[in-house]
Amino acid sequence: GAGAEVILHGDNFSDAQTYCFQLVQQSDMVFIPPFDDPLVIAGQGTVGAEILRQRGAGLEAIFVPVGGGGLIAGVAAYLKSIVPEIRIIGVEPFEADAMYQSLQAGKRITLPQVGIFADGVAVKQVGEHTFALCQQYVDEVVRVSNDEICAAIKDVFDETRSIMEPAGALALAGLKRKAAEDPGQGGAWVALLSGANMNFDRLGFIAERAELGEAREALFAVTIPEMPGAFQDFCTAIGQRVVTEFNYRLHRRDCAHIFVGVAIRNREDAAALLRQLRESGHQALDLSDDEMAKLHIRHMVGGHASEAQNERIYRFEFPERPGALMEFLEKLGGQWNISLFHYRNNGVDLGRVLAGFEVPDTDLQRFEDMLTRINYPNYPESSNPAYRFFLDQGDGPA
């Protein structure tokens, strides 16, 4: 209504900022920094003033989401000047931890790439002003996984029926991690919920990962003998636990491989179940922290490819937008036969593909040159235990 024009440019904050600088150079427009400006930081600091007015007594720690650092710099500078004993704790995703790395190094670090699941904090470099203030006033930065963020989104929904975006629930995820590490703390802890710009399509992915992030579900790969009574023995080993997922396919005549999800109380409970399975004579792997297993394998357990030759397995990532998958396929070209391909659109900002290529050793250098040329983040996964267990062309792990 005010006559402003919205321009969507780039796949992350750094791309958009670079384009803004270009517009400023080409015109008489003024660039208003989103976080690295003393007045913006001061405005963010009013959040600290509100917290102090609402809960002035007994405050021990404030957990603040960190992207470029504007919010935490303003809150920290204000609160430390009024109640210096209060702890200011920043929270970042492991895959977008520019402030954590910068404070560790004593200088601003530029990340080569950032994960954009929590897109509100997907910043490659923190601000100059914000970094200086954080060096002075911030006590600690805690890092959390995407699964922990999903669990925090679920917690907020369960308590308030409000749905946070990933960056919005980031601080609560950090508070929960800190509470688990040091449960004996007294006083009040506050987590800032910073936004609810949620795409509805993302909720399926978040719901799927929340139980893992809450340590309420564990994923296992289990080998059982292919013989009468073996399945019953396996169920006995699981006990009275709730099975959340069960995928089975005949592997060969002497054994079967199972991908199973089980409800647990905590990570220690998962470790105890793994020991129990092994003590009862089952080969078992805990895949709860295996990103490829959680993203791809659980949806495509389908047996080994005995005909595949010289198979090379890679994960790829690309910014999700209309046509992105076709663009990816076109860049791959048809030089090598694709023996495996898995892609799921989870409604998130990052497209993920698992692909297998039949590449003879004589073509390996040319294949690696192709990976460099297409310039997508890629991760070799041919040695991944989940792949070897369920999809490898051989017999799986010994």
Summarize the structure in words:
The protein is of the alpha/beta class and 398 residues long. The chain has three domains: 34-212, Rossmann fold (3-Layer(aba) Sandwich); 216-289, Alpha-Beta Plaits (2-Layer Sandwich), CATH 3.30.70.260; 304-390, Biosynthetic Threonine Deaminase, Domain 3 (Biosynthetic Threonine Deaminase, domain 3, 3-Layer(aba) Sandwich). It is built from 14 helices and twelve strands. Strands 3-2-1-4 form a four-stranded parallel beta sheet, with helices on both faces. Strands 6-7-5-8 form a four-stranded antiparallel beta sheet. β6 (243-252) and β7 (255-263) form a beta hairpin. The longest helix has 17 residues, at 38-54. The termini are far apart. The model has no long low-confidence stretch (mean pLDDT 87).
CATH 2nd-level architecture of the largest domain = 3-Layer(aba) Sandwich
User: If you compute it from the alpha carbons, what radius of gyration comes out, rounded to the nearest whole angstrom?
Assistant: 24 Å
Number of separate domains: 3
What is the succession of H and E elements? HHEHEHHEHHEHEHEEHEHEHEEHEH
The CATH class of the largest domain turns out to be Alpha Beta
Sheet with the most strands?
4 strands, parallel
